């Protein structure tokens, strides 16, 4: 593996035009913005990237554009998730052909496989590609949880090199770390507990909030490495507000609306996800103002005093 598994890997949003067609120019600008902010990797066509709403040809095109625009500046972690083992393996092979550096594979969703079936799923995907493979655990979305014992078994496979854990369960994150000594890389996927997870031994984070505030997330990680815990805690406080803002709309609508507010529009989420109404949009703006991502408008001050 020619890159280090550590740091801030951004699960990128997929930009669309108002008619919901892929906006390749905005995608290229997003790559440049994130790389320029100092992130350590890009992760297209994941959950934040609405992989579930993309046609196969669109998934391939998004990955192709990101690999081209990134041009080796940081590694590209391609989403390669599918309900069936065969479909996920095919996505992994395509990612390798298109020049990705690694693949991130969500547990199967809709079905409820056993731990042995999950092991076989990821083993087969790893055998289908020469790329590093990172299983992705997100039981809130899939209703499937990767047990620490299963992750320990997977870590014995040569090219299963790490895991993205979005369970939000710090105890389980700790068990993943304990069960996989050596170079296996545990990444935190829940933005609100990055600082705590780093102190426990995760190697980095895969934070969706970095689409909105990449400087804050990179600052948190660098502050931790430098031992500046006050700066680390302040950055974590800001990210917690951004995560709380998700309650205002359907994922990932809020992130896309916030990106437009901070000056980087990426269009709507694909339907059935609807844009925020005016009331929630004002609430979102006040939250962004409260953590310093936007200048405070006079009307926001009046609203907060009412």
Tally of individual domains: 1
Mean pLDDT: 96
- From the alpha carbons, calculate the radius of gyration and give it in angstroms: 19 Å
CATH class: Alpha Beta
Cα-to-Cα separation, first versus last residue: 57 Å
Order of helices and strands: EHEHEHEHEHHEHEHEHHHHH
User: How are the strands of the biggest sheet laid out side by side?
Assistant: 2-1-8-7-6-5-4-3
**Global structural class:** alpha/beta
Could you give a short account of the major beta sheet?
8 strands, parallel
- How many strand elements? 8
The backbone outline, from C-alpha atoms, is globular
Number of helices: 13
Instruction: Quote the beta fraction.
Output: 5-15%
Estimate the helix proportion, in percent: 40-55%
Descriptive account of the structure:
It is a single chain. The protein is an alpha/beta fold. The chain has a single domain (7-239), classed as TIM Barrel. It has 13 helices and 8 strands. It has helices spanning 24-36, 56-70, 85-98, 115-128, 139-142, 148-154, 170-179, 194-200, 214-226, 229-245, 253-261, 278-290, 298-305, and strands spanning 7-11, 41-43, 77-79, 102-106, 133-137, 162-165, 185-188, 204-205. An 8-stranded parallel β-sheet has the order 2-1-8-7-6-5-4-3. Helix 6 (148-154) runs parallel beside helix 7. The longest helix is centred in the C-terminal third of the chain and has 17 residues, at 229-245. The mean pLDDT is 96.
């Amino acid at each position: 593996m020619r890159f280090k598994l550590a740091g801030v890997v951004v699960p990128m949003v997929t930009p669309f035009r108002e008619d919901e067609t892929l906006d390749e120019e905005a995608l290229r600008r997003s790559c440049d913005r994130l790389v320029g902010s100092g992130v350590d990797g890009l992760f297209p066509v994941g959950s934040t990237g609405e992989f579930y709403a993309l046609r196969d040809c669109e998934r391939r095109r998004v990955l192709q554009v990101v690999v081209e625009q990134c041009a080796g500046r940081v590694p590209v972690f391609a989403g390669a998730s599918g309900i069936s083992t065969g479909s996920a393996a095919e996505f992994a092979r395509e990612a390798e052909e298109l020049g990705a550096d690694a693949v991130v594979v969500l547990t199967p969703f809709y079905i409820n496989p056993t731990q042995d079936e999950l092991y076989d799923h990821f083993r087969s995907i790893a055998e289908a590609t020469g790329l590093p493979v990172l299983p992705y655990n997100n039981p809130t979305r899939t209703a499937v949880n990767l047990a620490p014992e299963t992750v320990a078994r997977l870590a014995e496979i040569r090219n299963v090199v790490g895991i993205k854990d979005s369970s939000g369960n710090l105890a389980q994150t700790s068990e993943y770390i304990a069960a996989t000594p050596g170079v296996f890389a545990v990444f935190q996927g829940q933005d609100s507990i990055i600082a705590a997870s780093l102190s426990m031994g995760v190697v980095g984070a895969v934070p969706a909030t970095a689409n909105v505030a990449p400087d804050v997330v990179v600052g948190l990680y660098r502050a931790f490495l430098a031992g500046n815990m006050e700066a680390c805690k302040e950055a974590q406080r800001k990210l917690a507000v951004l995560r709380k803002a998700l309650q205002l709309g359907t994922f990932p609508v809020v992130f896309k609306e916030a990106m437009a507010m901070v000056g980087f529009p990426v269009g709507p989420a694909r339907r059935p996800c609807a844009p925020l109404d005016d009331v929630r949009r004002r609430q979102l703006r006040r939250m962004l103002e409260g953590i310093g991502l936007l200048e405070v408008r006079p009307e926001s001050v009046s609203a907060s005093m009412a």
